[in-house]
Amino acid sequence: MSSNTAGARVCFTSRVRADRIPEYRAAHAAVWPEMLEALRDTGWRDYHLFLRDDGLLVGFLETDDYEAAQRGMAATEVNARWQAAMSGFFVDDGNPDDGFVLLDEVFYLEGQLAALAAGSDGDAPGE
Predict the structure, then answer these.
(1) Catalytic entry in 28, 45, 48, 71
(2) CA distances in angstroms from 65 to 4, 37, 59, 73, listed in the order given
(3) Global confidence as pTM
(4) What 3-state class would DSSP assign to 9?
(5) Is 48 marked active-site?
(6) Considering all CA atoms of the chain, what is the largest pairwise distance in Å, rounded to the nearest integer?
(7) What confidence tens digit (pLDDT) does each residue in 50-108 have?
């Protein structure tokens, strides 16, 4: 992901408290239906969360405009309730969404394959 988050694949990290991991997993095994609908309706697609045993949380999503998707969720009542319910699970204080550390995308297989198929300069570095 680049710093431009329009039409983006977005990847982020956060940190779940190690002593709360089982509860965090359980909460995400049955996310509230109205939360799922709000995410969908505000433009969050192909949204995944991956959690390591030490609490490292990695999220991935696709959206047309990440900032707009975040603003849309922030405007929903269900998100306020969800963030309040989730806040105790994270190492950092405050709204969990505000603690996301965005990562830059450095490789995208399908993008490079499409460029190769289109006949663009797909040479590997140093060739």
Answers:
(1) 28
(2) 9, 18, 16, 12
(3) 0.82
(4) strand
(5) no
(6) 54
(7) 999 999 999 999 999 999 999 999 999 999 999 999 999 999 877 777 778 999 999 99
